[in-house]
Amino acid sequence: MEVCHVERWGLAVECPTPDAPDHAAEITWLLPDLGLRLTRYRPRSRHSLPGPSTLTAVRIEREPRSWTTTDLLLGLEVQNGGRTRITHAAEFATAVATGVLRREEADYALRTVHRTLDEVTRHRDLNQWLAYRGIFDVW
After folding, report:
1. Nearest CA to 83 among 40, 125, 139?
2. Residues pairing with 57 in the sheet
3. What pLDDT digit, counting tens, does each position of 105-121 carry?
4. Residue 89 sits in which domain range?
5. Residue 138 pLDDT greater than 60, yes or no
6. In terms of pTM, does the model score above 0.70?
7. Separation CA 45–CA 84 (nearest Å)
């Protein structure tokens, strides 16, 4: 882990990815008030375009010295330019059908992802949506 710090909006973590051919680091933000984990990859070359960002529904528990997340499987992939799509729907459906995810967790994930999809689509850009939510940082 190269960077780990608490922000007003959540937790920012950056980890190098030395074995990944296209990106140098994985950047993860835990956004507890939104019930989301945001993941981006820093390209190896500054001339490369960044890949899509991923927003995943999660339960986040904060303790004084630790953070714990529970992945709720359903998420969004946000391309540069704002095109957004729901991801991992099949895995989510299987987890719900087999009881891996409880009904309350599934409802929470669905509400979180659909609210976020609506908001990101309205703002047409992930960074503008983050700013609307009061989350500012330099990528």
Report:
1. 125
2. 36
3. 999 999 999 999 999 99
4. 3-132
5. no
6. yes
7. 25
Q: What's the total number of domains in the chain?
A: 1
Within a domain: residue 138? no
CA distances from 121 to 45, 49, 57, 64, 94 (A): 29, 21, 17, 35, 27
Rounded to an integer, what distance in angstroms lies between the CA atom of residue 138 and that of residue 14? 13
* Among candidate residues 81, 103, 79, 101, the one with its CA nearest the CA of residue 92: 101
Over 60: is that where the pLDDT of 139 sits?
no
The SS3 call for residue 46 is coil
Whether 27 maps to a domain, the answer reads yes
Q: What is the mean pLDDT of the chain?
A: 91
At 84, which CATH number?
A: 2.40.380.10
Is residue 51 very low, low, confident or very high in pLDDT (cuts 50, 70, 90)?
confident
Determine, yes or no, domain membership for 114: yes
- Would you say residue 120 lies in a domain? yes
Q: What is the dihedral of CA 102, 107, 112, 115, to 10 degrees?
A: 170
Alpha helices in the chain (DSSP H): 89-97, 103-123, 126-132
